[in-house]
Amino acid sequence: MSNRRNKRKNGATENPTDAVPAPRKDLIDALSRIYHDPKYKDLTILCSDQVFSVHKCIVCTQSAFFAKACDGEFQQEASTGQVVLHEDPALVRGMIEYLYTSDYRMVTLSLTPNGHTSSNTPLPDASEADDIVADEHALCQQLQGEEAKDSASQLGDAKEYPQAAVDPLSFHILMYSLADRMFIEGLKDQSSRKAEQELNQQLIEKVDQCLLPRAIVEIYSSTPAGVRGLRDIAVRVTMARLAKLNRMGCSGLGEILKNGLLDPVPQFCFDLLVAIMDNNS
């Protein structure tokens, strides 16, 4: 007993395993249980052909979008108790899971017949998207030969996203974009951390010189200019790896940044230049 008192006086902490379970974990476990219980659910989210029943007290307190919908600012939604979302159901399911558990799991995206998820985020116009596709495809052919053609074709139009079933990074990027539209700050933080971790992991594990350019194009085409989270990650990862990329073969990957990204995604060029200047100042 005296040893324990001395440890406390000296500022030492006890072993976390000796402590009782954190109340926050108990609360999250309880919320997870009621998510699967239809009792007391008082709001319906309609998304494509799927229906999600939720509790207003859970979703409205974490999302300004749902709060406005239920507080009467959206007349139809307030009167019917139903909110219609033109989003991918898999992303909506993940969003709801986060609201109840503070985390989400990656599931397969249900792509539309056009091959992309629904999104309200402004994207590049058709001509700009074509430029992105052309530059990306040419770069992959130059650096990786015939094997890169399949990789580049998966990018397709900048308005089309790869399926999350084969690309976890895309899923986290799209989840961040959805969280921004739904005004869920916690989910934005969670998805941005997952996106950065996945991007760094893929750069270590995959020998794909088009990986980083594709990720940057997707990040900048799925987020508004004023939303910095993922864009700052793209710049930070590029800065950290720029020297290494330039030391790799294929006539220098500085050409990738110049031709494949800086022209079709000029905002990335500006952001990267500012970061380089700040780093050298």
Report the sheet with the most strands, covering strand number, pairing sense and barrel closure: 3 strands, mixed
**Global Rg:** 22 Å
Helix content: 55-70%
Q: In angstroms, what separates the terminal alpha carbons?
A: 55 Å
Mass-distribution shape: elongated
Based on secondary structure, the structural category is: mainly alpha
Please, how many domains?
2
Count of helices? 14
Order of helices and strands: HHEEHHHEHHHHHHHHH
Low-confidence stretches: 11-20, 111-165
Percent of residues in β-strands: under 5%
Strand arrangement, major sheet: 2-1-3
Query: What's the overall average pLDDT, rounded?
Result: 73
Count all strands and give the number: 3
Q: Secondary structure elements and their pairing?
A:
Layout: H1 2-9, H2 23-35, E1 43-47, E2 50-54, H3 56-59, H4 64-70, H5 75-80, E3 82-85, H6 89-101, H7 126-144, H8 147-155, H9 168-182, H10 185-205, H11 211-222, H12 229-247, H13 254-262, H14 266-280
Parallel strand pairs: 1-3
Antiparallel strand pairs: 1-2
Helix pairs in contact: 6-9, 7-8, 7-13, 9-10, 9-11, 10-12, 11-12, 12-14
